[in-house]
Write a structure and sequence with these properties.
This is Serine/threonine protein phosphatase. Keywords: Coiled coil, Membrane, Transmembrane, Transmembrane helix. It comes from Paenibacillus sp. BIHB 4019. This protein has 638 residues and is α+β, with helices and mostly antiparallel strands. Among the domains are: 240 residues, PPM-type phosphatase domain (Phosphatase 2c, domain 1, 4-Layer Sandwich), CATH 3.60.40.10; 123 residues, no CATH class; 63 residues, Methane Monooxygenase Hydroxylase, Chain G, domain 1, CATH 1.20.58. It is 47% helix and 15% strand. It contains 15 helices and 19 strands. Strand 16 and strand 17 form a beta hairpin. The longest helix is centred in the middle third of the chain and has 54 residues. The N and C termini lie far apart (169 Å).
Length: 638
């Protein structure tokens, strides 16, 4: 077993510096045939998730499950960590810079994504170190700056590659490097290598003999500089006391195995040549398809059919990816983006999200300003159209507030204004919605008017009832008539018929119809000679339920004759009518009558002059049987 026949010692330290939290992370695993050390620096500010720890745990989990030094597999492990950080980037974008070292206890390989570093020391000298994937290192590679200035350059933290990068990760993975007994591996984050230079690392290495002493010495050097701000720093040291010794006899076995493998390889090479010829044919076909899709997309753009143009450019880019033609991939990506902005704007416009639609159209105008395929005037019209839509929406919103406040008259005016503007700009969907709201507001107004008229009619009806009760029948009829007209106007029919009966009752009270006579008193008398005395006699007659009595007599009168008065009465009432004169003689006379079912009164005048008094009964007499009589007495004096 490789681990048992080798000796690797590891120790580390990781501190927060002058910050409250330490976002660095270190972990390692030593298996029977492989070992792995990883140092990571969290580059984001998420307070809940530790991106460095997530990336390291993901890598170690995959490595423990499938230990390997294969470049392809290590890259797949890094890609899985990359995908995990991107998936968890919900609040903020998670980012981590890391260095990963893998060994089979004989050789090492390392993978870099960011600016965490590996220093490989041998015999008290720096044998090699990893390169940062930063803009400062890229400038040094182009010889724009000196390699010694990378550690202090302002662009040293401007990372070109890191775990969690949105565009995709392209890490650097080294070739295999042989280990010797006594080698020292030092893995550090920027917080350490920014403050401790390589000469200081060599001095610390010379004064120590184990990893614990080395990392402690490096920390002392860092803190001795008394910097006002110290970032998170991590250092992990691996002392290779003994590497695993390969058995040289195994090499001959490998040669034989290789020879056996070469035979099928040669056969496979023949098939590969054939396959490549087929591949070349497919590439030619793919190239033709790619150019055709591009031309079709351009035609659709000229026809303003942006949805189809988007589809064509997408297919052209897919063909370019199959051909691995980076130039055309970038070209079609730009074309796709321009059309996609317009299509997205159209989609937001259809959904009524005018702010987003306006943003997309403005971006499209900026992207296409130097592209002859696109009509800038059309984009200006779309932008102006959305501005008008936004204005209409503001008017509708104001109208909605008026309607919520029950100011329906103001709401109707605003809805009409918005609808007119929508019709002018061809805003069909908006006009339909505004029309619905306008109808609702007008219906509310009509309902309120109806309620007001109904209340007015009810008040008039009550006024009529009060006038009727007070005997003011003309006022009652007038109030009833007005109320009836309002009820008819608002189509409330039940009170109309009720008021018709009330008006009839009031008219009956105002203009009563006389009832036919049910009974009466009559008398006749003759007179002769002026100043003579006369006497008369009367007779009594019994009457049931309105019977009559009559009498006759003679009297002397200066005028000549008189006639008896006649009267009529309804049930229980008797009213006297007029006659030419009451029974009279001489200077004057008096007549009294009493009736049980009513009262009669007569008045008259003669030459001799006379008066008639009528006294009604205090209370109506009950109806009596035919053998009972209502007594009427009349006395005449002269």
């Amino acid at each position: 077993m490789r681990k048992e026949n080798s000796s690797f010692k590891t120790d580390f330290l990781s501190e927060a510096g002058t910050f409250m939290e330490n976002r660095d992370y270190f972990a390692y695993v030593e298996l029977d045939d492989r070992a792995c050390w990883i140092v990571a620096d969290g580059c984001d500010n998420d307070v809940e998730v530790r991106s460095a720890e997530m990336a390291v745990q993901c890598l170690l989990e995959n490595f423990t499950h499938r230990p390997t030094m294969s470049k392809r597999k290590l890259e797949s492990y890094l890609q899985e960590a990359q995908d995990w950080l991107r998936l968890e980037s919900r609040r903020v974008r998670l980012k981590a810079s890391l260095i990963m070292v893998v060994t089979d206890y004989t050789r090492i390989v390392w993978a870099v994504a960011g600016n965490a570093r590996l220093y490989h020391f041998r015999g008290g000298r720096l044998l090699g170190q990893s390169k940062d994937l930063s803009l400062a290192q890229a400038m040094a590679d182009r010889e724009s700056i000196s390699a010694y200035k990378v550690d202090r350059h302002e662009e040293r933290h401007n990372l070109l590659q890191y775990v969690g990068k949105p565009e995709g990760l392209e890490p650097f993975i080294s070739k295999k490097t042989a280990l010797n007994d006594g080698d020292v591996l030092l893995l550090v984050t920027p917080g350490m290598w920014e403050s401790v230079d390589v000469p200081e690392m060599l001095d610390s290495l010379e004064d120590t003999e184990d990893p614990t002493a080395l990392v402690d010495t490096l920390e002392e050097v860092l803190l001795s500089k008394q910097q006002p701000v110290i970032g998170n720093y991590t250092a992990a040291a691996v002392y290779v006391d003994k590497v695993y010794k390969e058995d040289k006899k195994k090499w001959s076995k490998w040669v034989k195995r290789i020879a056996l493998v070469m035979i099928p390889v040669i056969i496979a090479a023949g098939f590969a040549i054939y396959y490549k010829s087929r591949t070349a044919a497919r590439m030619a076909e793919g190239l033709a398809n790619m150019l055709e899709y591009e031309q079709t997309g351009d035609t659709y753009v000229e026809e303003r059919n942006y949805a189809q143009a988007l589809k064509s450019y997408s297919e052209a880019r897919a063909e370019a990816k199959k051909l691995k033609d980076k130039v055309h991939i970038a070209l079609y990506g730009v074309k796709y983006k321009k059309v996609d902005l317009i299509v997205a704007g159209d989609g937001f416009l259809k959904d009524g999200d005018y702010e987003k639609a306006l943003t997309q159209y403005k971006k499209a105008k900026e992207e296409t300003k130097n592209d002859g395929l696109y009509d800038q005037q059309e984009l200006d019209q779309k932008i102006s159209q959305i501005d008008e839509y936004v204005r209409i929406a503001a008017i509708v919103q104001e109208a909605d507030l008026k309607a919520e406040g029950q100011d329906y008259s103001a709401a109707v005016l605003l809805y009409k204004q918005a609808r007119k503007a929508a019709l002018n700009v061809g805003f069909a969907d908006g006009e339909k919605e505004i029309k619905t709201k306008l109808d609702e507001a007008e219906a509310k107004i009509a309902e309120l008017v109806k309620e007001q008229k109904l209340l007015k009619a009810e008040n008039l009806e009550k006024r009529g009832d009060r006038s009727f009760a007070a005997g003011n029948y003309e006022a009652a009829i007038d109030a009833y008539t007005q109320a009836q007209a309002i009820y008819q106007e608002i189509a409330v029919l039940e009170p109309v018929f009720k008021l018709e009966r009330s008006i009839g009752k009031a008219e009956d009270k105002l203009n009563p119809v006389p009832s036919p006579a049910a009974g009466g008193d009559a008398g006749m008398g003759d007179g002769g000679g002026a100043g003579s005395d006369g006497t008369g006699s009367g007779s009594e007659a019994n009457s049931a339920a309105g019977g009559s009595s009559a009498g006759s007599g003679n009297a002397s009168s200066s005028a000549g004759n008189n006639s008896g008065a006649s009267g009529s009465g309804g049930t229980g009432n008797n009213s006297g009518a007029s006659g030419s004169g009451a029974d009279a003689s001489g200077a004057g006379g008096t007549a009294n009558s009493t009736a049980d079912a009513g009262s009669s009164a007569g008045s008259g005048a003669g030459t001799g002059g006379g008066t008639v008094d009528a006294t009604p009964a205090a209370t109506p007499a009950p109806t009596k049987a035919p053998d009972q009589e209502a007594t009427q007495q009349a006395n005449t004096t002269g």
